[in-house]
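Lab notebook, design round three. We kept the backbone fixed and only want residue identities now. Task for the bench partner: fill in a sequence for the structure below.
Input structure tokens:
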């Protein structure tokens, strides 16, 4: 217990030192908790920082389509207050899928930009406006200079900025490893949906990778996708038990079934 307290104290001291170096010692950022203890405990302040820039990308083929990544961002934006500005370069945003995770079309203002340069200009202007709950923008390249301008704009207004890193070719996704000024960096990959005891499609599941967290820790989380209020949920062990083969359910291999339950 003493060692754990010393470790926590050391982390808090380090975070305070970083905050002073960044010039934030005179103010505290507001946080938007995910409501999932495993995630919030890994984020400084216990949630996603408002008035900051965050990056999200899709894993695998979703790096090109950003379907799961977009829903993850929409779920976050849905839990902010005020209008949401959503900036795109391609007309393929499926509004009903955003509503499914809590982001109503009545709250969303869509802007189509012709290039990454135009996206970044609209992104920064939206963050500086100050009257928006969140600004979400799809962008392929994000340099340190551009991300720093976005971060400063978010800090000034207090709005949440989310950059969805979306590429046209899989090879371009390597750019996601380049350093930026974002506070957190996430990757969202699709997992098999929650099994049901009857035929049908259950709640989607995601693998969330917290690749970078300023003054925090990296981690991976398996979660159930955002619900109609934009909230994630930890994966239920009950769902894993429901996916057992019928052979295990009827008692033909009780030992294997017991081991499966123990792991759940």
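Proposed sequence:
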């Amino acid at each position: 217990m003493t060692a754990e307290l010393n470790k926590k104290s050391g982390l808090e001291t380090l975070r305070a030192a970083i905050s002073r170096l960044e010039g934030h010692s005179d103010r505290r950022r507001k946080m938007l908790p995910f409501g999932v203890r495993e995630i919030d405990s890994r984020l400084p302040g216990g949630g996603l920082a408002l008035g900051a820039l965050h990056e999200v990308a899709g894993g695998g083929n979703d790096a090109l389509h950003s379907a799961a990544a977009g829903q993850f961002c929409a779920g976050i934006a849905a839990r902010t207050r005020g209008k949401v500005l959503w900036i795109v370069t391609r007309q393929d945003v499926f509004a009903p899928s955003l509503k499914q995770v809590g982001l109503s079309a009545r709250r969303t203002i869509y802007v189509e930009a012709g290039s990454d340069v135009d996206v970044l200009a609209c992104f920064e202007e939206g963050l500086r406006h100050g009257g928006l709950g969140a600004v979400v923008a799809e962008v392929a390249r994000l340099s340190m200079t551009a991300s720093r301008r976005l971060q400063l704009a978010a800090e000034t207004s207090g709005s949440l900025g989310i950059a969805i890193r979306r590429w046209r070719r899989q090879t371009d996704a390597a750019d996601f490893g380049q350093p930026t000024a974002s506070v957190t960096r996430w990757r969202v990959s699709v997992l098999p949906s929650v099994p049901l005891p009857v035929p049908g499609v259950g709640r989607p599941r995601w693998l969330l990778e917290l690749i970078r967290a300023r003054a925090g820790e990296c981690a991976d989380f398996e979660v159930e996708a955002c619900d109609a209020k934009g909230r994630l949920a930890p994966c239920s062990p009950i769902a894993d038990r429901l996916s057992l083969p019928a052979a295990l359910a009827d008692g033909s291999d009780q030992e294997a079934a017991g081991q499966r339950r123990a792991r759940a």
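Keep this in mind before ordering anything: The chain has two domains: 29-231, 237-264.
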